[in-house]
What does this fold into?
Amino acid sequence: MRRLILALTAATLLTSPAAAQDLLNALFSDHAVVQRDRPLPVFGTARPGETVTAAFAGKTATTTADPKGAWRLDLPATPAGGPYDLTVATATATQTVRDVLTGDVWLCSGQSNMELKVEAANDAWNQINNGAPNDAIRMVTIEKADGRAPKASFAKPPVWKPTNKQTVGQFSAVCYYFARELQKTQKVPLGLVHASWGGSGIEAWMTPTALRKVGGYDDAIATLNLSTTDPVAASRRWGETIKAWWAPKHPGEAAIAPWTGAGPWTPAPKDLGVWERWGVPVLAEFNGVVWFKAEVELTAAQASQAATLNVGQVDEMDTTYLNGVGVGATSGAWLDRSYPLAAGTLKAGRNTIVVSAYDTYANGGMYGDPAKRALVLADGVRLPLDAWTYRIEPRVGDDQPRAPWDTLAGVSTLYNGMLAPMGPFAFKGMAWNQGETNVGRDKTYAPLLTAFMAERREGQTPDMPVLVTQLANYGAWATTPVNSATAALREAQRRAVVADAHAGLAVTTDIGDPYDIHPGNKQEVGRRMALAARRIAGDAVTTGPAPVSAKRVGDTVVVAFEQIGGKLVTRGSDRAIGFELCDAAGACRWSDARIDGSTVVVTVPAGASPAKVRFAWADSPTFNLFDSAGLPAVPFEMAVR
It folds into this structure.
């Protein structure tokens, strides 16, 4: 009888709508905002071959699930409004999503300056406690997740939240303030899909297809793909990549390469920990690679076993070798590293474990519970790794490459984990606040950003607006003309936007903080992004003085500007500060400059032959050129014609 009851219960569960899996993609949930005024893609999963019917705002559509259960249909366009119910039904299940608005949906993405919350930005208490609740601005924050292949579902079901005192503090500040400003002139509901991760590079948000179009990523993509089918082979291949990076920096030193265990090593503190706290002067503020070595003696019986190599936490990323062969690589200081070793990997006698610990910011080292660092054999024997030595990799040449599966600096990892699960969800546009991690790689950034904008428009409207926040002022001031990597990245952002008729730039070099990479004035960032969105939409607004041309006229270079609100103005002087002229060899000098209508006239020193003109070219540039609407001139570098 009990078997009969269980069988009947199972049959009921299979046919009960309440027990069936969710039919809709998880972005379609209560309180969602969906895109107005164009056919609405609705999609999800059902049983293979089932007929799926969706009803929304008095309209219906039907389709059939494919052999894997995936389905999609397009509902007729609906104007701004709501709330509505969205109901999807099959023969075996029904799902209803309630309180859905139609309006404009924006994807807000990037790294930490997009991630920074309202509660951490300027004027937080006032904005949270005294801001008006607004049911027509709703945000959903995508759970952080990476992946080595595209994921079909989110790490955690997304939850749409309306703007009120209880929710707004957790919203992305830039994204929220952008929407609040935009809604002053566009009186429609705004849905904000926030997907960002501090420290992420643009490559992590892009598909392999887009990266291949840019070029130079084939090997990384191949290694990433290999890791999904043969992680041991992928780790070995990645270990060889690090060797290929190291070898040209150390000609004639192959015999003492760190992964061999040979060469000079220095005893490390017993429990390791943060190397900045060791009392070693050269490590007190060191960002880069430190190699760590431990050794373990095995009998023939022990060496014949499979094992697990545990090296604990490594800040920020490691490439780990066993007897000169790569066995694992992981990014994320918070993660304990455990690398499986197949039988036959170990050898009788001395086994050498070498960890390349690569730190790019703040603390670095191997830390956490020292007891976790051990070689654990298949028979349960645990051999502690408690005697470590180290050697410091000189900061010469290019930085160590990052593994292609690196969460934040790999290829396609965040696309796979956070963007791919969105499927063909419809967006009005995208707000992009990223670039700090790519500083130093400016030559590739413009083509990457161009390809990224193009692929984000795939499946959307071809003229979907993309708003790019240019890097704010952070870091060193310039007392003489300098070759600033941050300025070069800003220029790459500017060039990519200028070349795209449907992209806009929010300039922030006057509202950053030289001492804090996370400046707090996100309200103004949001306001400037909203101006860029309005300009793309055809509104009669300007976004700040932007250079059009630089021409040699007699003993001057005349720089013409557009997007001027009112007129050009200088602050604190009758001269325009921040202009440089550079010769063909790259030598630059400050140059006197003055406003003349919608141009700036830069004086050419006697005997000089300027090849290009720069403006506001430093990590934290000093300049005074604005328009009378209060917007700063765009930092730039331009050839002189």
In short: The mean pLDDT is 95. The CA atoms of residues 18 and 93 lie 7 Å apart. Residues 231-246 form the longest helix (16 residues). The first strand starts at residue 33 and ends at 35.
